[in-house]
Design brief:
4 domains, single chain, 5-stranded parallel β-sheet, Helicase, Ruva Protein, domain 3, alpha/beta, 20 helices, 3-stranded mixed β-sheet, Rossmann fold
């Protein structure tokens, strides 16, 4: 893997983490230079861009790097005039450090030690820790479900890190449901070596000691995918190998899931993560601040905790924004004035915020279509155009990550959202018929 390939893989992850406009800015201003001393060197086109990347995107870049190539230690952001200090090695591959099992790239910062336990997640945290201590012996399968940003990703990575550190000989495989499906499709499509491709696919998933499948709610309704998952589950379960599944809903509420799989998911333990109470949210922020080496007064943390109630990731993002603002403006103490300045854009957005539901309702009324059709599978022009316009408007008015927008529209892939956004943006630029629709709809939304 060369540095350009590494960066492209990181961009694939970053596209699901940060808002669409921010991602476009990152793409335009930043490029990979080299990997040196286990650090990724990124170059920006100006000092302004460098400050922007460090302030808004660096935490996400580090997270994406840990997902794609966790053997690297850090990211260094430079400008064009510093480039000559870092020798470019365009043809040199990044060599793996030590032995790694395919796809077992866990985010190092997510551990049980820094997972804040409260009444909303005490049970699932204990179950996850028990599974990591004795894979395949307790709670098999372990099915974790909960809303976006409540800690499912943290727990999955904590389990993976604990097993990797304490039982390194075990083959621990983490995969998204989407990737599992796509790899199966590729194996089926391999017309040159169909038997070899299917065999390699099955060996990969049935020869591991721990299999984690994330976002199982996106399971394909095709018979082939569910058939393969069924037999993979059976082989691993019968061999007493650990299976861990995550979802945003319990098995009984997953659409298109065959009853035989639904039943098997319930063989072990089903544990949910609920939104944390105020005290737990404040404790999470305290730990987050401590990790960044910053002392923040409890009163400030309480204000932040009260502003976001059901998404830990968003809440931590606000704290990071406040800390970054204080650092960049050379403030020694974070007080309420600093808090208000740092979150001014956010609070303005909140006051003027148009929810995804509002956008969808306005679009449905404007085009006389139902919400069920808008998020459904129909592909006739009368539905596809409003659907794509709706996706575009959500990227315009909200800072929702592309992956979440795809989830809103019936679990579509984030690349579908990108296609819709770019297509409608082009039509708007050309002032076409669709461009006029968008102009009308924006006017309607701004009246809300």
């Amino acid at each position: 893997m060369d540095v350009r390939e590494l960066w492209q893989k990181m961009l694939d992850e970053l596209e699901t983490m940060i808002p669409a406009l921010g991602f476009d800015t990152l793409m335009e201003t930043t490029a990979p230079v080299n990997v040196t001393e286990n650090k990724l060197i990124l170059c920006t086109n100006s000092e302004v861009s460098k400050a922007l990347v460090q302030k808004r995107f660096l935490i996400h870049i580090r997270e994406a790097m840990q997902m794609v190539f966790p053997m690297l230690d850090d990211v260094i952001v430079i400008t064009e005039d510093q480039k000559e200090n870092y020798k470019t090695k365009e043809d040199e591959d990044i060599k793996p450090l030590g032995n790694t099992w395919e796809d077992s790239h866990f985010i190092k910062k997510y551990t049980f030690d820094n997972f804040v336990v409260g009444s909303s997640n005490e049970f699932v945290a204990a179950a996850s820790h028990a599974v990591s201590e004795a894979p395949g012996k307790k709670f098999n399968p372990l099915f974790i479900y909960g809303g976006v940003g409540l800690g499912k990703t943290h727990l999955l990575n904590a389990i993976g890190n604990h097993i990797t550190n304490n039982q390194p000989k075990l083959k621990t495989l983490y995969v998204s449901c989407e990737k599992f499906t796509n790899e199966l499709i590729e194996a089926i499509r391999d017309t040159k070596n169909p038997n070899d491709a299917k065999k390699a696919f099955r060996q990969k998933y049935r020869n591991c000691d721990v299999l984690m499948i994330d976002d199982i709610q996106f399971i394909s309704k095709t018979d082939a995918t569910q058939e393969e998952l069924f037999h993979t589950f059976n082989d691993l379960y019968n061999a007493e190998k650990q299976i861990i599944i995550s979802s945003d809903r319990p098995p009984r509420e997953i659409q298109h899931l065959e009853d035989r799989l639904r039943t098997r998911f319930a063989w072990g333990l089903i544990a949910d993560i609920k939104p944390p109470d105020l005290e737990t949210r404040i404790a999470i922020l305290q730990k987050k601040a401590a990790e960044q080496g910053v002392v923040v007064k409890p009163g400030i943390l309480k204000i932040i905790a009260e502003s976001v109630q059901d998404n830990i990731r968003d809440m931590e993002g606000l704290l990071t924004r406040v800390i970054s603002y204080a650092s960049l403006t050379n403030q020694k103490e974070i007080n309420e004035n600093i808090l208000n300045e740092a979150l001014k854009d956010y609070t303005d957005d909140q006051k003027e915020m148009i929810s995804a539901d509002t956008v969808m309702s306005v679009v449905c009324e404007y085009f006389s279509v139902s919400k069920a059709d808008l998020i459904g599978k129909k592909k006739n022009k009368e539905i596809v155009e409003p659907r794509q316009i709706c996706m575009y408007l959500i990227t315009e008015f909200l800072t929702t990550p592309l992956k979440e927008i795809g989830n809103i529209f019936g679990g579509r892939d984030h690349t579908t959202v990108i296609f819709a956004r770019d297509k409608i943006a082009e039509q708007v630029r050309l002032e076409s018929r669709i461009g006029l629709y968008v102009k009308d709809l924006k006017a309607l939304l701004l009246k809300k």
